[in-house]
Amino acid sequence: MNSASKIFYGLSAFFVVMTVFYFVATGLVSDPGSRVGIEWAGGTALALATLLSLMLAAYLHLTDSKSDIAPHDWEEAEIEDGAGVLGFFSASSIWPFAMTCGVAVIGYGIAFWHLWMIVAGAVILIWAATKLNLQYGVPPEKH
Predict the structure, then answer these.
(1) Would you write out the chain's pLDDT as a tens digit for each of its 143 residues?
(2) 8 vs 53: CA distance, rounded Å
(3) Is 54 exposed, middle or buried (CB count within 10 Å of its CB: 0-12, 13-18, 19+)?
(4) In angstroms, rounded to a whole number, what is the distance separating the alpha carbons of residues 8 and 13?
(5) What number of other Cβ atoms are within 10 A of residue 59's Cβ?
(6) How far apart, in whole angstroms, are the C-alpha atoms of residue 60 and residue 116?
């Protein structure tokens, strides 16, 4: 088990303890200015944070068992051991910006509650995501 999965398992345990404490503490509040009972918004947020950190811990744990030891987990590693190809990054793609514009239009549509704006933003987002995924499947002269 690598260090990242240990951190997220520890974070999951912390969130479990805090979620239980939060539900118990808000259930015992007897302040005349507040409603009696459990406060559900914060408790739900803590429960979802618990599930998110547990999901990340499990993912990191499972992928660690299928891969070799990483340089940052090896005590005798040098900086050069982590060097190498990190992946392919498109330097001149406009589609991430177009996707951002689509998300922004959806956000404005939700903020002002205009259904046509939400639909237009979804169409822009789907179109830009499709173009991003098909960007290198089309010859450069057809871009």
Answers:
(1) 678 889 999 999 999 999 999 999 988 877 777 677 788 899 999 999 999 999 999 999 998 877 777 776 778 888 777 777 777 777 788 999 999 999 999 999 999 999 999 999 999 999 999 998 888 877 767 66
(2) 6
(3) middle
(4) 9
(5) 13
(6) 40
Say how many CA atoms lie within 13 Å of 55 toward its Cβ.
Answer: 6
Cα 107 to Cα 123: distance, rounded to the nearest angstrom: 13
Sketch the domain layout of the chain as residue ranges: 3-73, 94-134
CA triple 109-112-118, angle to 5 deg: 15
Mark 90-117 as b/e (b = at least 16 C-beta within 10 Å).
eeeeebeebbeebeebbeebeeeeeeeb
The overall pTM is greater than 0.85: no
Q: Which amino acid is at 81?
A: D
Element (H, E) at 34: none
